Structures are given as structure tokens and as C-alpha cells.
């Protein structure tokens, strides 16, 4: 039963073309290790350098957004201050393209702002995204933002197609946010 | 002024600032979640150095493989700081190295160069090893 159960679980991931999928508490150390494995995997398969860089960059920005903004956090002190953020990152290939999907819980009050930003990026073409990126690079950081504005533009800039995203309400205070990027 | 030497880590670049020789370099990768952990100590010494470097020749080598968006923002601040210093008479030359097949790093170099009038900015394709 045990092997059958988990084989089925793995088969679902395999048929979706998943290279790896991480769900749980993310730290900077986990981000580094996953990113390293991802780069090695792509290099071993002779993926060209520009594509490797794009996929890696989108992965890092997505994972760091989870670390910064996930509403599902564990905080405490175990001799040093520790903050862990829960979320999900999945990377795979589908019809010759890489996809990177991230998901995490966010507060309902933060949904409109995030939706506006992502819709704004969806409407832009490549040149507009590039110009928008440069404009944000020159600006002083926004309050409370911790760098997300530019992170989302970086993701849009590396993506081959417009970013896909969606929200699934959990209760009145929280929603499950999911974003998919293709390269 | 004391030199600044910080070895690279998994997510931060090698920093080598030889102030006496006027040779500064950043090499490697930069993607800490909080960019100020990497760039805070750099700005703390770079700013006072540039404030007192009029009429000196300073060369800054950037050989970066990858950096995240918050590091990009910090690099932009650094270039703005250098442009201001160059406007005051510091002779600043920047070499931006990139692998010939790495379009992302080349494009970043071009983006940063666009805002620089007084700093000499060289885009340098490295020879494949």
C-alpha cells in the first residue's frame, strides 16, 4: 500500500512533467540547494545558458517572494531568531517549455494590490516591461514592499508568455495564491 | 583607508576593494533575500572613499554571473553613486564582464550603462575558458 500510494503520487507529478516540486517551509538554505540542483539538471541536459539563467532567475524571485510574503509563517527563537515561510514551488517541462509554478497563502487584504500589479504586467509587451523595470530600478524602494515590485517585473521580463495567476479563497481572511511562468 | 576583502559565499559575491591602488572588484553571484546584507558593508566604505577620490583613477571590475532583483536595485544605487562621484572629478572606469553567450548579463550591463555620462563604462565579453 505504502509504495503503491507514493508511486501514484509520483506518477501524477511525472505525467505533469515535474522536475521537482517542493511544498513546505522554505528557507534561504533550501532555496540555494534547490536552485543549485535545478541549474545542474539543466546544464546536464545541454540547456542553453540564457534559458538556464531565465529559469533560475524566475525560480529565485518566486521562492524569495514566498519567503517574504507567505501569510503562513513560523516564527521563534532557537538560540537565534528564525522565521520560516510556507509555500510551494514546482518546476517542470511541458511541450518543450519550462514552467515554474509557485503558490502560497496570502492575506485577503493584500489580494487587490497583487492582482493589479500582475494584470498591469499581463497587459505590457516586452519593451514596455523592460522600460517599466528600468523605471522601478531607479526609484527608491516602496514602503512595506521589501523588493517585490521589481521581483515581479523581473519574472515578467524573463517569461516567454504573459504570467498566469489565480486566487482561491480559503476563508474571509486568507486566499491561496498561485502563479505560473513559462520559459 | 582600510581595504575591504570579503570572500564569496553561496549567495554573495567576492568583494575586493584595494583603495590604495584604486582597484575595486565584485565577482560571483548575489541573491540574498535581503540585499542590504551584501551591499550595506559595501556602501559603508565605498561612499566615503568616493567622497575623497577627486582626480584619482579608479577602476571597478564587475564579473557577475547572476544577481536577483533586489541586488539589481542595489547595483543601480551603486552606479548612481559612482556617476555622482565622476561628475565631481573622480576618474572612474567600469569594466562589466559577461560570458559571450549570456544575454541576460550583457543586457544588464547595457541597462546600467545607459544612465552613465561621466563614468567610462566598458562592456567586455570574456573569452570562453
Account of the protein in words:
The complex is a heterodimer of chains A (183) and B (129). With 183 residues, chain A is an alpha+beta fold. In chain A, 49% of the residues lie in helices and 30% in strands. Chain A is built from six helices and six strands, in the order αβααβββαααββ. In chain A, strands 1, 2, 3, 4, 5 and 6 form a six-stranded antiparallel sheet that branches. In chain A, a hairpin with a 2-residue loop joins strand 3 and strand 4 (97-107). In chain A, helix 3 (49-69) runs antiparallel to helix 6 (148-158) and helix 5 runs antiparallel to helix 6. The longest helix of chain A has 21 residues, at 49-69. Chain A is globular. The termini of chain A are far apart. The model of chain A has no long low-confidence stretch (mean pLDDT 92). With 129 residues, chain B is an alpha/beta fold. Chain B has helices at 36-51, 69-87, 103-114; strands at 4-6, 14-18, 23-30, 57-67, 91-98, 120-125. The longest helix of chain B has 19 residues, at 69-87. Chain B has a six-stranded mixed sheet with strand order 1-2-3-4-5-6, with helices on one face. Chain B is globular and about 35 Å long. Chain B has a single domain, classed as 2-Layer Sandwich (Transcription Regulator spoIIAA). Chain B contains three helices and six strands. In chain B, helix 1 (36-51) runs parallel beside helix 2. Classes of the chains: A alpha+beta (183), B alpha/beta (129).
Give a quick set of tags describing it.
heterodimer; A: about 180 residues; alpha+beta; Heat Shock Protein 90; six-stranded antiparallel sheet; 6 strands; globular; B: about 130 residues; 3 helices
Q: Got a strand count of chain A?
A: 6
Series of H and E elements of chain B? EEEHEHEHE
Mean pLDDT of chain B: 94
Shape of chain B: globular
Structural class of the helix and strand makeup of chain A? Answer: alpha+beta
CATH homology-level superfamily of chain A: Histidine kinase-like ATPase, C-terminal domain
> What fold name goes in the CATH topology slot of chain B?
Transcription Regulator spoIIAA
Largest sheet of chain A: 6 strands, antiparallel
Total helices of chain B: the number is 3
Helix content of chain A: 40-55%
What summary fits the major beta sheet of chain B?
6 strands, mixed
Care to count the β-strands of chain B?
Answer: 6
Low-confidence stretches of chain A: none
